[in-house]
From TrEMBL:
<dbReference type="InterPro" id="IPR024079">
    <property type="entry name" value="MetalloPept_cat_dom_sf"/>
</dbReference>
<dbReference type="InterPro" id="IPR021190">
    <property type="entry name" value="Pept_M10A"/>
</dbReference>
<dbReference type="GO" id="GO:0006508">
    <property type="term" value="P:proteolysis"/>
</dbReference>
<dbReference type="InterPro" id="IPR001818">
    <property type="entry name" value="Pept_M10_metallopeptidase"/>
</dbReference>
<dbReference type="Pfam" id="PF00413">
    <property type="entry name" value="Peptidase_M10"/>
</dbReference>
<dbReference type="GO" id="GO:0030198">
    <property type="term" value="P:extracellular matrix organization"/>
</dbReference>
<keyword id="KW-0645">Protease</keyword>
<keyword id="KW-0378">Hydrolase</keyword>
<dbReference type="GO" id="GO:0004222">
    <property type="term" value="F:metalloendopeptidase activity"/>
</dbReference>
<dbReference type="GO" id="GO:0031012">
    <property type="term" value="C:extracellular matrix"/>
</dbReference>
<dbReference type="GO" id="GO:0008270">
    <property type="term" value="F:zinc ion binding"/>
</dbReference>
<protein>
    <recommendedName>
        <fullName>Peptidase metallopeptidase domain-containing protein</fullName>
    </recommendedName>
</protein>
<keyword id="KW-0862">Zinc</keyword>
<dbReference type="InterPro" id="IPR006026">
    <property type="entry name" value="Peptidase_Metallo"/>
</dbReference>
<keyword id="KW-0479">Metal-binding</keyword>
<dbReference type="GO" id="GO:0030574">
    <property type="term" value="P:collagen catabolic process"/>
</dbReference>
<dbReference type="GO" id="GO:0005615">
    <property type="term" value="C:extracellular space"/>
</dbReference>
Length: 343
């Protein structure tokens, strides 16, 4: 079975460490970028359009595109079984669970009710590859990179979250998190040395990206783009972080989406943390349907409001204009007071 989506798009967000006093690059030509006017809040939502390479969160939220959201009432995540050579699975798992719980245990101030998204640890997995399968089973994996950081700027980057989503709606399909443990002195205690990096702080920030939040404009927010070594600050959500997660998931049945999608309100599906196309602990080979055959796709949205139909290799679905395609781009957020970099 295949999903009938126009494009499943992947992008990345990263957290970096405070590496000096050089300021963010802010010299952007007026009129070229779409930024929200200064709002009363400082949280920003990740959108379907790529950020410009010289974008800075201090300029305001980038609003060109559709905001991202999980269509289900709950989502699953899994930790790679190997964890880190420096931190074993048994040590990091409760830290990661606590980081996700920081977001899902929120009480929304406006409604005085629980935030409308939950997350479940589906258990360790063997797969350590960041990818989304369009046909085979998946896992929303959290993996530690302790031998080599496979991206640019390994000295500054602490974490990277890659999300895959439907460009037509903004619905999230997959999210994978990578933690940089290549000489980063990650710690799991409540006492962090001056040159140490609090794992709970790092994962709590990355979990915000997992849920669809972008870097905040408020330097006191967990979702601000930089982390100062030796601190525990990002462990604790700010009022603005709470407002952000509640804005996306006001209730377990409602998602705040773009006005062009379902009239601005998306009805969430029932709680099922199983990843899209099923759950697997292995890195499954994403094999498309055999040529000449047809596969019937399910609804595009979790609530069944999306389009559905049939796609055949020989073009049976002519006129539906559906294509299953995945694009990759890197979300390169400028970093706090650290040097401005891009992945």
């Amino acid at each position: 079975m295949i999903d009938l989506l126009r494009r499943a798009h992947a992008r990345r967000s990263r957290l970096a460490s405070f590496m000096g006093s050089s300021s963010l690059a802010t010299g952007i030509m007026a009129g070229l970028l779409a930024f929200a006017p200064a709002p009363a809040h400082a949280f920003c939502r990740t959108v379907t359009k790529d950020l410009p390479p010289d974008y800075s969160p201090l300029q305001g939220c980038y609003t060109d595109g559709l905001p991202l959201f999980w269509g289900n009432a709950c989502v699953g995540y899994s930790v790679n079984r190997a964890a880190s050579a420096n931190l074993p699975l048994a040590a990091v798992t409760p830290i990661i669970d606590q980081a996700f719980a920081s977001w899902t245990s929120v009480t929304c101030p406006a409604s005085r009710a629980a935030v409308g998204i939950q997350a479940s640890n589906l258990g360790p997995v063997d797969c350590d590859v960041v990818k989304y399968n369009k046909y085979a089973a998946n896992q929303n994996v959290i993996v530690f990179r302790d031998t080599e950081w496979p991206y640019s700027d390994p000295n500054n980057t602490l974490g990277l979250t890659t999300v895959t989503f439907n460009e037509e709606t903004g619905e999230l399909y997959d999210a994978d998190m990578e933690i940089n443990d290549t000489g980063k002195n990650l710690t799991i205690s409540d006492t962090v040395p001056p040159n140490g990096y609090d794992l709970l702080s790092v994962v709590t920030h990355e979990a915000g990206h997992f849920f669809g939040l972008a870097h905040a404009t408020d330097t006191k927010s967990t979702m601000y783009a930089s982390y100062k070594p030796g601190t525990l600050t990002l462990r604790h959500l700010s009022p603005d972080d709470i407002e952000g997660i509640c804005d996306i998931y006001p209730t377990e049945t409602t998602r705040a989406v773009a006005s062009t999608v379902s009239g601005g309100t998306f009805t969430a599906g029932a709680c099922d943390p199983t990843p899209r196309h099923g759950f697997s602990t292995k890195c499954e080979v994403d094999t498309p349907p055999s040529e000449g055959g047809c596969a019937v796709g399910g609804p595009m949205g979790a609530n069944g409001s999306g389009r559905s139909g049939a796609i055949c290799a020989v073009g049976l679905a002519l006129g539906l204009a559906f294509a299953v395609r995945r694009q990759r781009s890197r979300m390169c957020a400028s970093v706090g007071l650290a040097r401005s970099t891009s992945d």
